[in-house]
Design brief:
The structure is a single chain. The chain is of the alpha+beta class. The protein has one domain (about 1-145). The protein is about 20% helix and about 35% strand. It has helices at about 1-15, 25, 125-135, 145-150, 155-160; strands spanning about 40-45, 55-60, 65, 70-80, 80-90, 90-100, 105-110, 120-125, 140-145. A 5-stranded mixed β-sheet has the order 8-7-1-4-9. Strands 3-2-5-6 form a 4-stranded antiparallel β-sheet, with no helix packed on it. Strand 5 and strand 6 form a beta hairpin. The longest helix is centred in the N-terminal third of the chain and has 15 residues, at about 1-15. The chain is globular.
Length: about 170
């Protein structure tokens, strides 16, 4: 009886951690095309129920984007260049991305067994594999550079060139 209850509870938890909504395939026609000089990075997690409740935050160059949520995909538009994308749970997994050659990059996120809760893992996949795998996943977000990268605030002139403060 208790085992059945725990199994039901775990299964229900796993289902609530899944993204719900229209699939990427259904929404793809409404996605804006890339602007000149930009690249698009798709980050996705397949619908495997292991560690479903864990949704590691994903960062690019230490700037927060979406979460690595089960059965979901989101994308980040960035100027062409080289970036480091990471996901963190009890560890931090990083992948170096060079978008100077390809306009579109696919990053798969997964959660593996860990010592305490689970270990995040992010890695680049081939474009044909990534493009096929995201079709049935739920599109959960789109990030533009201005959404992700903070613009430095301008300091008043005296703060830039003035003498150091006295202590």
């Amino acid at each position: 009886m208790v085992r059945k209850f725990i199994a039901t509870l775990l299964f229900t938890s796993a289902l609530t951690a899944c993204a719900e909504g229209p699939s990427f395939q259904e929404k793809s026609a409404s996605i804006a095309p890339l602007e000149k000089g930009m690249s698009r990075i798709f980050v996705y997690r397949l619908p495997h129920f292991y560690q479903a409740a864990l949704q590691p935050p994903v960062k690019i160059e230490n700037a927060r984007t979406g979460n690595c949520q089960l059965n979901s995909v989101f994308y980040i538009d960035v100027p062409r260049g080289k970036y480091v994308l990471s996901a963190t749970t009890e560890n931090t997994s990083e992948v170096a991305i060079d978008t100077t050659k390809d306009n579109i990059t696919y990053i798969r996120c997964s959660v593996l067994p860990g010592i305490v809760i689970g270990r995040a893992r992010v890695f680049e996949v081939a474009p044909d594999i990534g493009a096929a795998e995201i079709q049935k996943l739920v599109l959960t977000g789109a990030f533009k550079p201005e959404d992700v990268f903070a613009t430095p605030q301008e300091l008043p002139e005296e703060e830039i060139s003035g003498p150091p403060p006295h202590i």
